[in-house]
Amino acid sequence: DETIVLSDLAKRMGIKANEMIKKLMMLGVMVTVNQTIDFDTAALVASEFDYEVEKARFEEDAVLNIDSEDDAGKQVGRSPVVTIMGHVDHGKTSLLDVIRKTRITEIEAGGITQHIGAYSVATNRGQITFLDTPGHEAFTSMRARGATVTDIVVLVVAADDGVMPQTVEAINHSRAAGVPIIVAINKMDKAGADPDRVMRELADHGLMSEEWGGDTIFVKVSAKQNQGIDELLEMILLQAEVLELTANPERHARGYVVESKLDSGRGPVATVLIQEGTLHAGDPIVCGIHHGKIRAMLNDRGAQVDEAGPSMPVEILGLSGVPNAGDEMVALDDDKSAKQVSEHRLQKHRSLELAKTSRVSLEKLFERM
Ligand code: GDP
Ligand code: MG
Question: What is the pTM of this model?
Fold first, then answer.
């Protein structure tokens, strides 16, 4: 369903929008400058001006070069990307905090951790990237856009509370996305802790522990007392080994926005999790409806970096606007293509927005009648 905003069509044809509106009126079509018209109407009015509208579809994918790069023989291992999910108050934030504190500040004494929506943890057996957006929204909104950025879900269940509605939701989301689950039974320090009950309840939802002959990894932890964290990290890496996660670091970078904001001093800022390829300072990029050139990249410790490879989260500066979480970012060869793709998307976006508002105003009109 190709549509175009009337003013955009007029501009492309070098015709005043008013002239086009008049012509359309004579043809019995009532539109305003900001309304969209469909292909047939566009073709009709264009022929009135001795133009021919071609249904030449903008080949965005060709410009983006997405599937044309050869990955053969270039795939190498990459770190796992982990999302922590679970029922409210079961300890997601506490767990993320304790992992971050013990693993990052230990290594970089005095280092201040930046909140960028994702962070990378170094263990002596490898790196793990955690998405610092506990809860289901980030996970589901990205999935709705066809992006599965998470390799492993850590399902937090409080030992004194057991399986709750959001626990079940998290299991369903993970299953739907085909992402393996590691269970962290948290709050083991509490007097009312009953891990067996948690295991029983989860078995009822198809998550059977290895202890009981199933294949789900369970780890008993206490975020409060910093217990079982090493084992949890080890189990994540073990699960990652089984998944044999790979990516080609040699192609144009592709990734997803996990967080974004407008910074008064730095302009649009986005945290991007790189999935494929390597992003370099100076790379032209397209991100959602925006484009730009990587002016600077910062890692989760606020340090400037020149490049970011697969599974690495980086904060990027240099975009023309603030993208949405879940938007895809693609690096391109030249600024011109980046601008072209972003303009095309912007136009499409505007058409959709305008279609929405004109529908609303029509409804209002009918209300009044
Ligand atoms: P979230 O809603 O899942 O992010 O849960 P929070 O991390 O905010 O934790 C909810 C409450 O449980 C807070 O009061 C935490 O201090 C507490 N809590 C988290 N982990 C533990 C734990 O291991 N032991 C105990 N006793 N309390 C915990
Ligand atoms: Mg929380």
Answer: 0.79
